[in-house]
Amino acid sequence: MTGKQQSVDAYISAAPKEVRKRLRDVRAAIREAAPEAAEGFSYKMPFYSFKSRMAWFGLHATYIGLYLRPPVIEEHKKELTGYVTTKSAVHLPIDEELPLSLVKKLVKAEMKWGKTKG
Q1: pTM value surpassing 0.85
Q2: Under DSSP, is residue 41 helix (H, G, I), strand (E, B) or coil?
Q3: How crowded is residue 42: how many other Cβ atoms within 10 Å of its Cβ?
Q4: Which residues of 1-118 form beta strands (DSSP E)?
Q5: SS3 call for 105
Q6: Phi, psi (deg, nearest 5) at residue 57
Q7: pLDDT digit string (tens) for 76-104?
Q8: What are the sequence ranges of the domains in the chain?
Q9: Which CATH number fits domain 8-110: 3.30.200.20, 3.40.190.10, 1.10.10.10, 3.90.1150.200?
Q10: How far apart, in whole angstroms, are the C-alpha atoms of residue 118 and residue 115?
């Protein structure tokens, strides 16, 4: 998604109607897993920070990207089998059920990692 959204609410509202609920679900999962994190907008995507920027999510043509620090992706490689991953991203297909419990687990791991580094 491109555009000049300045808030997470505006970002979600600008998304196609059929994916807005999915974006709200990812947002809710992140907020539940990281209640101490501040929500903001960076790199044209929603982001969450705790001591530093720790997680982003963004809508793409066929997936929602969940962006985390590389150590978290690497540590959970087995659980991420079946998803496209990069060094710092997990692609969550928009035409499949969202693995919200996995999103929460990854974000909690990110929070834990951030607490040890801050």
Answers
A1: yes
A2: strand
A3: 11
A4: 38-42, 45-49, 53-59, 63-67, 84-85, 89-93
A5: helix
A6: -140, 150
A7: 999 999 999 999 999 999 999 999 999 99
A8: 8-110
A9: 3.90.1150.200
A10: 5
